[in-house]
Design a protein that fits this description.
Blueprint (H helix, E strand, L loop, with lengths): L1 H6 L10 E5 L4 H14 L4 E4 L11 E3 L6 E2 L2 H15 L6 H15 L4 E5 L17 E4 L7 H4 L3 H8 L9 E3 L4 H13 L4 E3 L4 E6 L2 E6 L2 E5 L7 H15 L8 H10 L7 E2 L14 E4 L5 H17 L4 E5 L7 H5 L8 E4 L11 H10 L3 E4 L3 H8 L9 E5 L2 H11 L5
Parallel strand pairs: 1-5, 1-6, 2-5, 6-7, 7-8, 13-17, 14-15, 14-17, 15-16
Antiparallel strand pairs: 2-3, 3-4, 9-10, 10-11, 12-13
Length: 414
């Protein structure tokens, strides 16, 4: 990255102020809240997130007065080709070229803030060339990508805290003891002010509302639009980040507008209409979530439990996963909620987990499981079953599968 960025005249040094976000789960949702709050405060916000669901353009949002928009095809093509020419055939990964293109795009367009999501880990991530962000944020750290980041939570946390910079505030979500110990150690080493969930700031659910508190006071806000108890935590992390930055003066009304207005596709997203919905049982509920590790499965299962308390429906989980994921750890979260699992193949992915292997993991947990060739086939199969109450259907296990579903349904992210 340093070699390529030098050839590009260092666009990463020409960016608006950067908020750099790492972690295992919740990074994208936290960025969605940050962007929505900042835009509600009439600030221009660039955002670089990954992976995309349907189109590469989703990774790049360019800020503008009154709200931003995804980069257009021609401008994105030009940025990628510019980086490719500068690279001149030297060894490079796709993510590195895409990240360099983000820096070029963001350096060319004025904005007030750049929201920059780590791709993998942190210490060696392509985004970690930004030398002096105005804040670093660490969302919940859990087990994932162990083949790259290590086999223990401590080793994974050490990679995540690689984004912490000298004297730059660190805002972190609630963490497991092993992870918070590493974060605290790194913050001390870098003389970085540390704002920890449950210590310097708190977020709670009271009467269905989000109540946030820190040393500056208390805010009583409407519930997030994004569904699930974990979204209160993600929203709290975004609020804590912006309140830790003296350079940003955010009106309280902007915090509430952002919390209730933030959108982030494939995170407990309700599919209410579309081509795929039309193939499902009449009056069923379809929920889509890209969770793909044990912790992601836990928060989705908790959200489903909340839904069950409100309106009881039989639950069917349609799942497809990548081969390097912990299928048993993910599916165990649903063992008490459903016995009906349908394992499907993620199309066009060479390293997708075979449905038979997924099915074996489900059977080992005592679940009733069948394998079908596609999500469409799974939905059609459910129309042939007799339900006293229309089912609640969760499609989950991979962001790649989620993107495929949104494309099939005709509801890609905008």
């Amino acid at each position: 990255m340093q070699r390529l960025l030098q050839r590009l005249d260092h666009p990463e040094r020409q960016l608006p102020p950067v908020i750099h976000v790492a972690g295992t789960n919740g990074k994208g949702s936290t960025i969605a809240y940050l962007r929505a709050i900042l835009e509600a405060a009439n600030l221009r916000v660039h955002a670089y997130t990954s992976p995309y669901l349907v189109r590469l353009n989703e990774c790049y949002r360019l800020g503008a007065a009154g709200g931003g928009a995804l980069v257009g095809d021609e401008e994105l093509r030009a940025a990628l080709e510019h980086c490719e020419r500068a690279n001149a055939g030297a060894p490079i990964t796709i993510f590195e070229i895409e990240t360099a293109a983000a820096f070029c795009l963001f350096a060319q367009h004025p904005a007030d803030v750049v929201l920059l999501e780590v791709g993998l880990g942190g210490r060696l991530d392509a985004t970690n060339v930004v030398e002096a962000p105005m804040a670093t944020v660490i969302a919940p750290v859990s087990m994932d990508h162990t083949e790259f980041l290590g086999q223990t939570l401590m080793t994974i946390a050490r990679e995540k805290v690689g984004i912490v910079k000298l004297n730059v505030p660190v805002i972190c979500a609630e963490q497991a003891p092993e992870a918070i110990a590493i974060i605290e150690q790194q913050a001390r080493r870098k003389h970085a002010p540390l704002y920890r969930a449950g210590q310097e700031w708190h977020v709670n659910v009271e009467r269905g509302r989000l109540v946030y508190q820190d040393e500056r006071g208390l805010m009583d806000l409407a519930a997030p639009k994004l569904f699930g108890r974990h979204q209160f935590d993600n929203a709290g992390l975004a609020i804590a980040t912006l309140r830790a930055l003296d350079t940003l003066k955010i009106d309280p009304a902007a915090f509430e507008a952002g919390i209730v207005g933030a959108e982030w596709p494939a995170r407990m997203q309700r599919l209410a209409a579309g081509a795929l919905v039309d193939q499902a049982p009449l009056d069923c509920e379809i929920w889509l979530d890209g969770g793909h590790n044990a912790e992601g499965g836990r928060v989705v299962a908790a959200a489903l439990g909340d839904l069950e308390e409100r309106v009881s429906r039989p639950l069917v989980v349609i799942v497809g996963m990548m081969a390097n994921k912990d299928a048993a750890g993910f599916l165990a979260n649903f063992a008490g909620l459903t016995r009906h699992i349908i394992a499907v193949q993620i199309p066009d992915r060479d390293n997708a987990m075979p449905p038979d292997r997924l099915a074996d993991a489900a059977r080992a947990l005592g679940m009733r499981v069948e394998t079908l060739g596609s999500v469409e086939a799974a939905l059609r199969s459910l129309t042939r079953l007799a339900y006293e109450v229309p089912p609640r259907i969760l499609i989950t296990g991979s962001l790649y599968l989620a993107g495929h579903v949104l494309g099939l349904n005709g509801t890609p992210p905008g």
